[in-house]
Specification:
single chain, 242 residues, alpha/beta, Protocatechuate 3,4-Dioxygenase, subunit A, 2 helices, 10 strands
C-alpha cells in the first residue's frame, strides 16, 4: 500500500508541476507579436512500434519502479496554440527520444549500446485550458548521425496536427545536422535553452517550447523519412537516421 501511495503522490506532483512551471515561465504578450507556425519536421523511423506500459508525462520513472533513468533531469514545459495564437485545450502532446546512452525503445534501432531499462522513452500529456503541457524527462543527447533532439507529435482528436522536433539552442553539433540545417531561417522556432533550475541540488534544467499549429491537419504518410510504407519505406536515409 505504501508503494501505491508513493506512486499516486508522484502523479499528483507532476500534475501540479505542469501548471506551476508553465505559469512561472509564461509571460503574457511575449509571443503575440511574433507568432509563427512551428515548422513540420520528419517523424523519423523510431516512433515506438509498441507503446510502453507506462505512457505518462514522467519519462524518468516507469510505473512504480524505484530506480530512475540516467541523465540530466529536465522539466520540459510549453503551450500548444492555434494559428490565431489561442490556447488549444485537450490536445494530445506526445514526445519520444533516445535514452542517455543514445538508444531508442524501438527494435529497428541498430545502435550497439546497452539501453537504459529505466527510461520510459515515450510520454503523453493532454493540454489544459491554457494549452499547457509538462514532461519530466532527460536532456537530449547525441544519436549517431544526429544532434540532440526530442521528437513531438501533437494531435486533436483523431487528427495529427503537427510532427516536429526540438533542439538545444546553440549546441555545436546542430550546424552539422542535415535536418536542422534544412530548417534554415526557422531554426529559432525549434531551438530552446536548457537552463539550470534555480535552487536544484540535482543539476536539473528547464526548457520551454511553445508550439503553434497550422490550420489544417497533416498527412503522416507524407513523412519523407518513413515513406508511404511506414518505417523503412521510400525516402528513408541511409543508416536509418531519425
Amino acid at each position: 500500500m505504501q508503494k501505491d501511495h508513493r506512486h499516486h503522490d508522484r502523479r499528483a506532483f507532476l500534475h501540479h508541476s505542469a501548471f506551476g512551471l508553465v505559469g512561472a515561465l509564461y509571460v503574457p504578450g511575449v509571443f503575440a507579436q511574433k507568432l509563427q507556425q512551428t515548422p513540420r519536421q520528419t517523424e523519423g523511423p523510431f516512433y515506438p512500434t509498441k507503446l510502453p506500459l507506462d505512457t505518462d508525462n514522467d519519462l524518468l520513472i516507469i510505473n512504480d519502479k524505484l530506480t530512475p533513468a540516467v541523465g540530466t533531469i529536465t522539466h520540459l514545459t510549453g503551450r500548444v496554440l492555434d494559428a490565431r495564437g489561442e490556447p488549444v485545450r485537450n490536445a494530445v502532446v506526445e514526445i519520444w527520444q533516445c535514452d542517455n546512452n543514445g538508444k531508442y525503445i524501438h527494435p529497428g534501432d541498430t545502435n550497439k549500446v546497452s539501453p537504459d531499462v529505466n527510461f520510459q522513452g515515450f510520454g503523453r500529456f493532454v493540454t489544459g485550458s491554457t494549452g499547457e503541457y509538462y514532461f519530466r524527462t532527460i536532456k537530449p543527447v547525441p544519436y549517431p548521425g544526429r544532434t540532440p533532439h526530442i521528437h513531438y507529435i501533437v494531435k486533436q482528436g483523431d487528427k495529427r496536427m503537427l510532427t516536429t522536433q526540438l533542439y538545444i539552442k546553440g549546441f555545436e553539433q546542430n550546424a552539422k545536422d542535415g535536418i536542422y540545417r534544412g530548417l534554415a531561417a526557422k531554426q529559432p522556432l525549434v531551438s530552446v535553452d536548457f537552463a539550470p533550475l534555480k535552487g536544484s541540488k540535482l543539476g536539473e534544467v528547464t526548457a520551454h517550447f511553445e508550439i503553434v499549429l497550422g490550420a489544417t491537419p497533416e498527412d503522416p504518410k507524407e513523412d519523407r523519412m518513413r515513406g508511404p510504407g511506414g518505417p523503412g519505406g521510400p525516402g528513408r536515409p541511409p543508416g536509418g537516421r531519425e
